[in-house]
Specification:
By secondary structure, this protein is mainly beta. Helix content is 13%, strand content 66%. The chain is rod-shaped and about 75 Å long.
């Protein structure tokens, strides 16, 4: 009797899996959590080179350059199309938009740096932020009866902002900011499970290499020591875990 029940259960599961077809158009919403790395690299020019010592330049750039680790939550929408083949292969294309609150900021107090006179200290700040992202991607998966497992490969544009600032005890005061749409490769893995004939739940892990932006600082009003310049290169890499619910039409 137990053997017969096991056989019946196996047949029911097989029938359910065989009935699951991921083909068709779909759309849905998602919640995201992103975390990443953003190196802020500061380079010095003009009077930093002609007047100041190499020891001071190295001390300032080492103190001011830093690794930021932005993180935060987001929400978004997606839409796409899947085609399932008789072998179980599932190919799909998708676009999505997400709004994020992903950021990190560092602001130090007045600190002595190597190479500077004992009476001279510096306070520095760096910040990076990501808000909007747009992604176009391909999904390559397999129907595992009834779970769909898949790989993701695509391209993401991100609305990124960054800034950097410095204030010395000698009255030297500079601030710079940059804002740009960064673009880069997105790749990762995902899995989806049906909730009924039309609704499904999915979870994904994605990595996006967004590249970098550059900007220069400018003098604040009343700053001392004219003729110094700083350039900042801010790069950004994000990892995202996202949970989505979709409806198949």
């Amino acid at each position: 009797m137990r053997t017969q029940l096991g056989f019946v259960a196996a047949m029911l599961l097989a029938g359910s899996a065989a009935a699951q077809d991921w083909s068709g158009f779909y759309a849905g919403g998602l919640a995201t959590y992103s975390f990443g790395d953003g190196d802020s690299d500061v380079s010095l020019g003009s009077n930093w080179i002609t007047i100041e010592s190499a020891a001071l330049r190295d001390g300032v750039t080492d103190f001011w350059s830093t690794n930021l680790q932005p993180d935060g939550w987001g929400v978004g929408l997606f839409a796409g199309y899947n085609k399932q083949y008789t072998s179980g292969l599932v190919l799909g294309a998708e676009v999505n938009y997400a709004y994020h609150d992903v950021n990190d900021r560092r602001l130090t107090g007045q600190t002595s740096v190597p190479g500077a006179p004992p009476s001279l200290t510096y306070a520095v700040g760096n910040e990076v932020e990501v808000e909007n992202t747009f992604t176009a991607r391909a999904n390559i998966g397999w129907n595992f009866d009834p779970v769909l497992g898949y790989l993701v490969i695509g391209y993401t544009f991100a609305d990124a902002k960054a800034n950097a600032e410095v204030l010395s005890s000698g009255g030297y005061s500079k601030f710079g900011s940059g804002a740009d749409w960064l673009g880069g490769l997105t790749y990762g893995v995902g899995a989806a499970v049906p909730l009924d004939e039309t609704w499904s739940l999915r979870v994904e892990y994605l990595r996006t290499d967004l590249g970098d932006m550059t900007f220069d600082t400018g003098y604040r009003a009343g700053s001392t020591f004219p003729g110094y310049s700083e350039g900042v290169r801010q790069d950004l890499t994000l990892q995202t875990v996202q949970l989505g619910v979709s409806y198949k039409f």
